[in-house]
Design goal:
The complex is a heterodimer of chains A (about 180) and B (about 300). Helix content of chain A is about 65%, strand content about 0%. Chain A is an all-alpha fold. Chain A has one domain. In chain A, α1 packs antiparallel against α6, α2 packs across α6 and α4 runs antiparallel to α5. In chain B, the strands form two sheets. Chain B has a seven-stranded antiparallel beta sheet, covered by helices on one side. In chain B, strands 7-8-9-12-11-10 form a six-stranded antiparallel barrel. The chains are: A mainly alpha (about 180), B alpha+beta (about 300). Chain B: Belongs to the MreC family.
């Protein structure tokens, strides 16, 4: 190479590595699930599920990126990190991804607002379903008012997370 | 954005099969997930072993961050302390002077107490204390209320051991990994603690509500005996918790149910103490229970 400083500049005709292309979305979702590592001893479900938010962002930004089975391994990892019963995110995330597929099939055209609507429904499904599965798997009675603040802040956080995801995506595909 | 083209594979047979297979895998995975939840209904800690790897791997990160933020979390207290530093200083100094006498009296009483207990040949075997550790993380995005403790099986922590702070009860150990343990907090919906009112021993049951408060139900039928401000302590019934650990203070009454707030806030306490189960601590020092002899059994059998 003539000029070594040009190595980090994006250039036409160069491909980013396969690991960067395929691994970045998976790693970001796993990091989102791992937000429970933060030393916050919560007294109520206050932390938005960042793993779910990032999964939805990637799915809606890049429909061709993943097949629906990606919900199984990513959901299992989320279950391991969160205190939910093992299997709950595995089930909910995969069903949610299949649902997003079905909705996308019927929609001819969608934009930012439709994305947010799809994400809101998906978030409500996953959080309420998670609360239900946690309560039947030995969690005692759980009132839905308990997850209402978390639902609201997660839905409101979605546009921000999508924006950050798009930034990462730009870096990901840039050679 | 228009509909993505890749979802309809057209006439390419291989692409069609691949898409079909992906849905089959996804449905199977979802079914397996549901099955795992159903298994967890009957055996809540059965698959907790799967968490061992992540709990162990994330432990150093949690500890490091915990050490960084331990000063930050109390910054509001530090700021409010500066607000009325002068007058507070005078008031605190007066209080210290009055408290000093009380402490001396209390020491004398404790000494007398020890002497009297010796006279009664009552050994106060306080061997319940196992170890002191810190809470390093929690299930902050879930509706369950778990906290992760920085000590595990290799340090002697076992499932079911009570966890307390100086202020009061925090919870009990739910599952353990080699170096960490999950603490089922007092406020979790499945944590039921037998309690009694501190001053007159009215028995009650405390259940977590998941939002940082507790539901207190009196065991006696009839009118709700509790009033806001009542202090509840563990009663020792059931053999898990030592008696007389402070649990909660009642804040609100609604018909048959009283609502309480735990006295120990797990997000504020610096370190927690893991204790041996009450039953274990009581029975551990005794020799093996005497085997009933045939004569004794016969005597019991013939007794009316």
């Amino acid at each position: 190479m003539i000029d070594p400083h040009l190595r980090h500049v994006s250039r036409l005709g160069r491909q980013p590595s396969a690991f960067r292309l395929a691994g970045t979305p998976v790693i970001t979702v796993m990091l989102g699930s791992a937000v429970t590592v933060l030393p916050v001893i919560a007294q109520a479900p206050v932390m938005p599920p960042f793993g779910l938010l990032l999964l939805l962002s990637w799915r809606l930004l890049r429909p061709e990126l993943w097949r629906t089975w990606i919900g199984v391994p990513l959901g299992l990892f989320d279950d391991m990190m969160s205190g939910q019963p093992i299997g709950s995110s595995m089930f909910l995330w995969t069903v949610m991804l299949i649902g997003v597929d079905a909705v996308e099939h019927r929609m001819v055209w969608r934009s930012y607002r439709q994305d947010w609507l799809i994400a809101s429904v998906a978030i409500i499904f996953c959080i309420v379903g998670g609360a239900f599965l946690a309560s039947v798997a030995g969690g005692g009675d759980i009132n839905l008012y308990l997850v209402a603040p978390q639902l609201l802040c997660t839905i409101l956080l979605f546009p921000f997370v999508v924006r950050q995801c798009a930034q990462i995506d730009r870096w990901r595909v840039m050679a | 954005m228009a509909r993505p083209p890749s979802r309809r594979p057209g006439h390419n047979r291989k692409a069609q099969y691949s898409l079909f297979a992906s849905y089959v895998v996804a449905m199977t995975g979802a079914a397996v997930g549901l099955l795992l939840v159903v298994v967890a209904m009957f055996d809540p800690t059965g698959f907790a072993v799967i968490r061992t790897a992540t709990a162990e791997i994330t432990r150093p990160a949690s500890i490091a961050m915990r050490n960084m933020v331990s000063g930050v979390s109390s910054i509001d207290e530090v700021l409010t302390a500066y607000w009325r530093a002068g007058s507070q200083n005078v008031a605190l100094r007066r209080q210290v002077e009055t408290d000093r006498n009380r402490i001396i009296e209390a020491k004398a009483v404790a000494q007398e107490n020890a002497r009297l207990k010796k006279l009664l040949k009552l050994v106060d075997a306080d061997e319940s204390h196992l170890l002191t550790a810190r809470l390093i993380a929690s299930s902050s995005s879930s509706t369950r209320r778990f906290a992760r403790l920085n000590a595990g099986r290799w340090q002697g922590v076992r499932t079911g051991m009570p966890v307390r702070a100086p202020e009061g009860l925090v919870g009990r150990i739910h599952s353990t990994t080699p170096n960490t343990a999950e603490v089922l907090l007092l406020t979790d919906g499945s944590n039921i603690v037998p309690v009694r009112r501190a001053n007159d021993s009215v028995p009650a049951i405390s259940t977590g509500l998941g939002d940082g408060t507790l539901e207190i139900r009196a065991l006696a039928a009839g009118r709700n005996p509790f009033h806001p401000g009542d202090i509840l302590v563990t009663s020792g019934v059931g053999g898990v918790y030592q008696p007389n650990i402070p649990v909660a203070v009642i804040v609100r009454i609604a018909g048959e149910i009283a609502y309480g707030v735990p006295l120990a806030n797990p997000s504020k306490v610096d370190a927690v103490v893991v204790e041996r189960s009450f039953e274990e601590a009581v029975t551990r020092t005794e020799p093996t229970p005497p085997v009933p002899t045939d004569a004794g059994a016969a005597a019991n059998a013939t007794a009316p």
